[in-house]
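Bumping with the actual sequence this time:
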Amino acid sequence: MRTLGAADGQLDIATRLKAARGTSLVILSPKAGSMTPAIEAKIRKAFSESVVVDFDPDMDIEKLVAPNARVVVAGGDGTIGWVVRRLVDTRHPLGIISMGTFNNFAKSLGLPTTVDAAVRVVQAGKERPITLGRVNGHVFLEAAAFGLFGEAIGAGDAAKDRAFGEFAQGAMRMLGARPFEYEMTGDIRGHGKTLSLVFSNTSSIGSQMPVGDKTPTDAYLELTFYSAWGRTDIVKRVIARALPGENVDPGLGQMFKFRKLEVRTKPRTGIYADNFRVGQTPATITAELSALKVTLPR
């Protein structure tokens, strides 16, 4: 096994390419919520013929591995999302060992969340293309959200991480959110007024808030209207899903399947792709079959 860490930063690109050529690459996130020294050792042993690197947001994956070699990521939701976005237009087979708190993407794909089972899937599973969403060109794994629900996802992540200062800021943004008018064209045509629109690719988003029955192996996205939810309903559900021991019936809104939508709002509304704010409406939302293939259970 060849392990690359911080000390390898001085290796030139040619050396790293030579080391990785013809092998698979394993990206480990030592800071992932479920990662321990024993689990890290187990993963390294399972992929002893691979190049292993610690996750670094400045890394260039294409300079560490051959063009069609397998990439395995062992980490939390953020690390997995980072890797998927970097590889979305490539033909690398991707193996996922999910080590996060909520694991919405992995669970929606039917991937196990125990390390031994996840390793077995990576080693013996079947590669399948998946659907990813794009909103104004930004890739999302779980969902894009407009309005209050987008602010709620960010606040829920802060509560999950016990970043209560950020949660307080998010709560203020939620309280300041107002209903907006929307007009849609494309696969769904219509107009109305709502607090939130959610365009989902997974069955749950954020702090495991259920949003439907969607899996990334489906060739479409789901639109959910939350017109019937009040501000208190959404805030209550965010806190309930983020804090241990709480459970609130999600009371899902109406859901519609689509491949492409154009959405305009009045006033312009913030857009979130997963938990990142990526601009304001108007927006184009599409379901796209990725060139990237993920190793799934047979």
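The tokens above came from a reply further down the thread. Residues 161-165, 239-250 have pLDDT under 50 and may be disordered.
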